[in-house]
Amino acid sequence: MRDELLIGPDDSGRVVAIAQGRVVDAVGPDAERLEAGGAQITPGHVNAHTHLYSGLAPLGMPGPEPAPTCFVEILERVWWKLDRALDADSLRASARLYVANALLSGTTTIIDHHESPALIEGSLDVLAGAYGELGARGLLGYGATERNGGREEALAGLEECARFARTGATETVLAAVALHASFTVSDETIADAGALCSELGVVMHVHVAEDQADVIDAVERGYDGPLERLARLGALPQGSILAHGIHLSPEQVSWAAEQGCWWVHNPRSNEGNEVGYAAALGATTRVALGTDGWPAEMEVEAEALERLGSAAGDDPQRRGKRLDAGHRLVAELFGTSENVLQPGAVGDLVVADERGPRHVVVAGQVVVRDRQLVLGDLEKIRREAEREARAVWERMSAL
Ligand SMILES: [Zn+2]
After folding, report:
1. Separation of CA 2 and ligand 1 centre (Å)
2. What spacing in Å lies between the alpha carbon of 366 and ligand 1's midpoint?
3. How far is the centre of ligand 1, averaged over its atoms, from the C-alpha of 242 (Å)?
4. What is the pTM of this model?
5. Residue 308 pLDDT level (bands cut at 50, 70, 90)
6. For the chain, which domains are there?
7. Span from the CA of 223 to the centroid of ligand 1 (angstroms)
8. What is the phi/psi pair of residue 15, to 5°?
9. What's the pLDDT score for residue 227?
């Protein structure tokens, strides 16, 4: 018998079964068959923190002038210009290119943190459209902030999270409430965000202590730090996703993990922004891996973690588990089994050989077959992205 992966609903109508060289009873005659000779069947990768709005950046985004000299200047001169230049068409093109390349790289879950100040209402629907169209799993939230338009802007961001949670979220694309970071919002906005999490029953997704500037800001406001500020204002419900955690102590990191929060390590981004290595994250196993806007190639990110972690003297056992910890995060978020190779699990699988992912399945649906997207045309997606990217660079230069 040839090795193959069989995909089909089991008796409970749920997902998936796998057969490598054996027949699986639960799968009926209508099961889809994917050739798996000489390949490995593994769970799909999880990108636990990223930004789809930066999906056009690899298409020749011009460098900032003058060159930034610190983290906040990188935000001001690059990402906070890019996000203001986005409209619905460019956001859609950016999201589709990002999601398409993620799936082709074997990344089946993408946890996004979104901001597009010129297009707040409806922006999460644009992103969800790309997930739905191409077949990815994910979590979406609008990162509320006061940095452009004060409280009014923050309330519009929170309202977008609520609107999407109530009317846009699906079984495979869930909603979060998000804040950009403690240092760009007032106490009122943090408290509102926390109350909204409780009301909607969803998690918080926020940048924490990515740079010392975030810590200094919270201290100046009278708190011990950004983590303590979020906690005191009731904005850290169980399951919350905290990106970075660089300028914290091991005690702070493990305290948040004990509250049920997840940390996300983004090694390539941290290196690029020169914000330091997140050494304190070694204090807990509730740490997943994210790319923070870099392409969702999780094996490349894991290699960067190896390189940077080894240089920083980080515990190799702990850091080596971060890529797979994403599956635990997904199981908690979606209320599914952690072992995706069992029937009844989320059904996110990759058939991969030495050339990379051959087939990719999300929630029992084949989304990549023979290294090609099943539900989209990569060439068309890329052409559209290149066209939109040129328009975005032009708008950015005028900001
Ligand atoms: Zn980020």
Report:
1. 43
2. 29
3. 10
4. 0.94
5. very high
6. 4-41+347-378 (2.30.40), 43-334 (3.20.20.140)
7. 23
8. -120, -155
9. 97
